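Deviation from plan, reported transparently: nicotinamide-adenine-dinucleotide complex.
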Amino acid sequence: MKIAVLKETRPQEKRVALTPKIVKDFIDKGFDVLVEKDAGLLSSFDDESYKNAGASIVNKDTAFEMADILVKINPLDDEEINRLKNGQVVISMVYHRLQPELVKKIAEKGAVLFSMDAIPRISRAQNMDVLSSQSNLAGYKAVITGADNMTKIFPLMMTAAGTITPAKVLIYGVGVAGLQAIATAKRLGAVVEATDVRPETKEQAESLGAKFISVENDNDDVSEGGYAKEQSAEFLQKQKEAVNKSLFSADLVITTALVQGAKAPVLITEDQIKQMKRGAVIVDMAVEKGGNVDLSEPDKTIEKYGVKIIGTTNLPSTLATNASELYAKNLYNFITFMADKDHFYFDMDEEITRHTLLAKDGKVLVE
Ligand code: NAD
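Because the crystal trials were delayed, the predicted structure below was used instead.
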């Protein structure tokens, strides 16, 4: 089968779905690989390196004309959907709950759609889990972005001119991104605190050297399948009271809290921001899903009450080389699990297939 790597069309996107190394791995397995011209340029992979790995460099028309499987990071745009042929397989992130229309349009073209962000969070699918591979890098970059916007350093420093006390970092949400943010901030020498609604995250945060701020919850039913559920207004109020002391003395705050299928919870209000330290920085990683911070806006830095509030939407793209390497490996593990060089298996009794196959034979297969 022929796999075609499409050039990303989302504005500011720098990643690419396959790297030269993974192209070679696919070719070794008997697949052919076509790469749209300049697809990897912004991730530092030029056409020459793909050619050396055994790929053919093609224009977009040829990619759509010849491919059995089209791969991308972001969903196809409308112009690309119009080019699809009956039976062609498309694999990308889709976020289908946010855009059911997109799945319908692809189904209507008779194409097959797999979603990389719908891979179940089970042990045997860990090596295909793009949410984890990308969030991990995002957690790292959030700390670096915060550090770059602070007027202070992270570590304790004793100098002849006096002692600098370490920066205080507070992290909301101890999922994949939050854990990497804790690890990165600790490595840089900060004093780190973290909070989450899922009690099991206490041990995980502490194992990385953070102090965990527990919030008493009358409701035991805080999560489902590892994901946090939406919390009550009472809980969110209690959480604010428990965390306020740390929030008001923090130099850097990183918010990562998400709830499946719902808007991100507001964890920091304008009133709380007023009471924060002058010079403090907040990086809101949940801004695209509605934001954990009252004043944050996507891809903007707002300065109010002496606090910088940074809304970041696509941090993995700013680390395009590593993010593409990990995405490509996830994709390789996914495709070689689902298919061989001649055909896809489409085993609907198998859990990963059932979760990720969104459209086939003209039908939408998800709600
Ligand atoms: P996520 O991005 O959905 O959410 C980030 C964090 O925000 C979560 O830890 C969540 O509990 C927290 N959160 C939600 N509401 C909050 C609130 N009001 N206050 C504070 N924190 C709040 O999470 P994720 O990183 O995608 O991880 C989700 C789950 O998947 C976790 O249980 C994780 O361990 C699990 N996981 C499993 C695998 C695997 O086995 N393949 C891989 C990765 C992650």
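The chain has a mean pLDDT of 96. We consider this an acceptable substitute for the interim report.
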